[in-house]
């Protein structure tokens, strides 16, 4: 098979993968197509076209956020077209699960941080309501807490109907980032009979959680320079390839079509991966995250 045929096959495969990754057919999509095509109403009261456009935009944004790792395939296809080789496309396909794991880890970290912030806000809100004269059960039942995970739903129910609130709080605190609810449960167990004492305990819990978060953010800011240096070193080989191509050296042809180039490509990839892993381990150890990436 000629290089041109391989390139066109790579382009077609890339287009098919991208279309399959972003397409999410469903009942609402079919209804939107029916309305936009003028085929009649899809229900008793169809929404306005502007609403369908907004829903389609949100759906595309959600699909992009959920399947961003598939962008490795078009990038690999682009390099395959430029280098007339199928190897970059195969590398892009193999990079999809790696990027998916990395994105999932980042999403879990953001979820933990959002729950930690939600616990701090919950403590402050309930403490303020208690000092205003409200009962503990009423304050907790109406405090919100939608960002505290699925286990939080049992806490307002226990507060409204006289259940075991500390037990429900400890169960909700077992989720990632919600460990502060264990302190709330301890304060509730000790001082539930006196609203003022519970308010003081919740304020101390919120202050401790806020101090822990501030310390972690300060340490993260101090390590930002190291992370930036590692990222710059990671993209430096790509910049060197671009400079070589601009000078007419044809680095992709050398790397992808000669034995010495393939050997250098494999060795350089291994060294790049080892350097990233080593730098990441150093940063995690300095940040106190070597045990699993944060508290859960």
Automatic annotation (TrEMBL):
Its main location: membrane. It is found in: Cell membrane. GO terms for cellular component: plasma membrane. The chain crosses the membrane at residues 230-250, 256-276. Residues 202-229 form a coiled coil. The keyword Transferase does not apply. The keyword Mitochondrion does not apply. It holds the Pfam family T2SSF. It is a multi-pass membrane protein. Residues 130-243 form the Type II secretion system protein GspF domain. Keywords: Cell membrane, Coiled coil, Membrane, Transmembrane, Transmembrane helix. PANTHER family: CONSERVED TRANSMEMBRANE PROTEIN-RELATED, INTEGRAL MEMBRANE PROTEIN-RELATED. This is Type II secretion system F family protein. It comes from Streptomyces morookaense.
């Amino acid at each position: 098979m000629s290089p041109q045929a391989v390139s066109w096959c790579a382009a077609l495969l890339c287009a098919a993968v991208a279309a399959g990754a972003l397409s999410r057919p469903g009942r609402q999509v079919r209804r939107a197509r029916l309305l936009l095509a003028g085929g009649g109403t899809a229900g008793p009261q169809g929404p306005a076209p502007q609403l369908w456009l907004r829903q389609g935009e949100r759906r595309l944004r959600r699909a992009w956020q959920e399947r961003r790792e598939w962008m490795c395939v078009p990038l690999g296809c682009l390099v395959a077209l430029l280098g007339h080789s199928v190897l970059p496309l195969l590398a892009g396909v193999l990079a999809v699960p790696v990027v998916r794991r990395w994105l999932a880890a980042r999403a879990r970290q953001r979820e933990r941080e959002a729950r930690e912030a939600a616990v701090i806000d919950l403590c402050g809100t309930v403490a303020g309501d208690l000092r205003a004269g409200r009962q503990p059960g009423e304050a907790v039942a109406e405090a919100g807490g939608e960002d505290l995970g699925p286990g939080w739903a049992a806490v307002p129910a226990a507060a409204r109907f006289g259940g075991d609130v500390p037990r429900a709080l400890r169960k909700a605190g077992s989720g990632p980032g919600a460990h502060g609810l264990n302190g709330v449960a301890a304060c509730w167990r000790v001082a539930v009979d006196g609203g003022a004492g519970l308010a003081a305990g919740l304020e101390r819990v919120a202050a401790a959680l806020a101090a822990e978060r501030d310390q972690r953010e300060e340490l993260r800011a101090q390590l930002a320079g190291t992370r930036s240096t590692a990222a710059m070193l990671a993209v430096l080989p790509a910049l060197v390839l671009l400079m070589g191509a601009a000078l007419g050296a044809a680095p992709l042809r050398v790397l992808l079509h000669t034995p010495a180039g393939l050997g250098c490509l494999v060795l350089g990839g291994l060294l790049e991966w080892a350097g990233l892993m080593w730098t990441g381990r150093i940063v995690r150890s300095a940040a106190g995250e070597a045990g699993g990436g944060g508290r859960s």
